[in-house]
């Protein structure tokens, strides 16, 4: 009989000891929230015996922890944007991209046999893309190559890019659509580049790009790309440059001549001045072959 009592008492103590353990759980250990929305991080107390347990929340950013809820009040950068909800959930209002971090819920109960437990929750805040920067060439020639670019750096997760031609979505693989079957473009949805290997007349038109992620999308204004048979603009600019160079050279020569740095009059082969002769001596006569004195000296 005594043995039975001892066994029953041991089982009761074991049962009560198991029941007096702090046990936590969460509905989701990895959560997403869109920027400016609200999100509730769940810290559910499944088992506890202590009436007033100590509850704390910590934010871990880049491996460095800081208090979010400590000594029954919200602190840190969430001081005016969060509150504790029963039993130990943390509600964050108007979340921002800086709230992306890990959050740890800690519950301590001194009267429990297992007096402490914690859970870790990862929060990622999705940020809607801003209007992307789009680069579309104004004009290209038939048969040449062309590249269109689209990029934005604010969205999180990273944006995926989609191009539109005359407001019609361009498939990533042009061969999958009868309308774009004869085109020669390749599209990179990760980098936002649209490359034409050989531009054709039908590629002319308006182009715009859309950046999109789980939080939303944004797009740039349509831009026109003209396709010409000849590079009229290039030829015009080259001719204009040549004319400008000739005009500049001519103006420079005129300026030099006016300043006297260069003789600009035409010279004939016999227009040079003859050297001045001395009155006392004749120069060599080609016919006589000797000097002839104009006057004699008397010693």
From TrEMBL:
GO terms for biological process: cell migration. One of its GO terms (molecular function) is cell-cell adhesion mediator activity. Residues 1-21 form the signal peptide. One of its GO terms (cellular component) is cell-cell contact zone. It is found in: Cell junction, Tight junction; Cell membrane. Residues 20-122, 129-213 form the Ig-like domain. SMART domains: IG, IGc2. Keywords: Cell junction, Cell membrane, Disulfide bond, Immunoglobulin domain, Membrane, Signal, Tight junction, Transmembrane, Transmembrane helix. It is a single-pass type I membrane protein. PANTHER family: JUNCTIONAL ADHESION MOLECULE 3A, JUNCTIONAL ADHESION MOLECULE C. Belongs to the immunoglobulin superfamily. This is Ig-like domain-containing protein. The gene is jam3a.
């Amino acid at each position: 009989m005594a043995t039975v009592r001892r066994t029953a008492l041991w089982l009761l103590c074991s049962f009560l000891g198991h029941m007096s353990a702090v046990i936590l759980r969460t509905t989701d250990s990895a959560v997403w929230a869109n920027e400016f929305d609200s999100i509730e991080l769940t810290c559910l107390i499944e088992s506890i015996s202590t009436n007033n347990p100590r509850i704390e929340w910590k934010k871990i950013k880049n491996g460095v922890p800081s208090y979010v809820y400590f000594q029954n009040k919200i602190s840190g950068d969430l001081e005016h944007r969060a509150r504790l909800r029963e039993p130990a959930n943390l509600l964050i209002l108007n979340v921002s991209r800086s709230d992306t971090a890990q959050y740890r819920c800690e519950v301590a109960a001194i009267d429990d046999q297992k007096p402490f437990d914690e859970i870790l929750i990862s929060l990622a805040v999705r940020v809607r893309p801003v209007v992307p920067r789009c680069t579309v060439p104004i004009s290209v020639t038939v048969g040449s190559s062309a590249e269109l670019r689209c990029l934005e750096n604010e969205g999180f997760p990273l944006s995926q890019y989609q191009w539109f031609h005359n407001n019609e979505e361009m498939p990533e693989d042009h061969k999958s659509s009868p309308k774009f079957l004869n085109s020669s473009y390749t599209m990179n949805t990760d980098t936002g580049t649209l490359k034409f290997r050989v531009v054709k007349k039908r590629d002319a038109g308006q182009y715009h790009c859309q950046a999109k992620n789980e939080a939303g999308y944004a797009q740039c204004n349509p831009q026109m790309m003209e396709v010409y048979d000849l590079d009229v603009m290039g030829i015009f600019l080259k001719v204009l440059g040549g004319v400008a160079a000739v005009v500049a050279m001519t103006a420079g020569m005129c300026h030099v001549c006016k300043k006297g740095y260069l003789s600009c009059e035409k010279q004939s082969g016999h227009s040079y001045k003859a050297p001045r002769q001395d009155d006392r001596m004749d120069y060599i006569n080609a016919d006589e072959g000797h000097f002839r004195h104009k006057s004699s000296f008397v010693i």
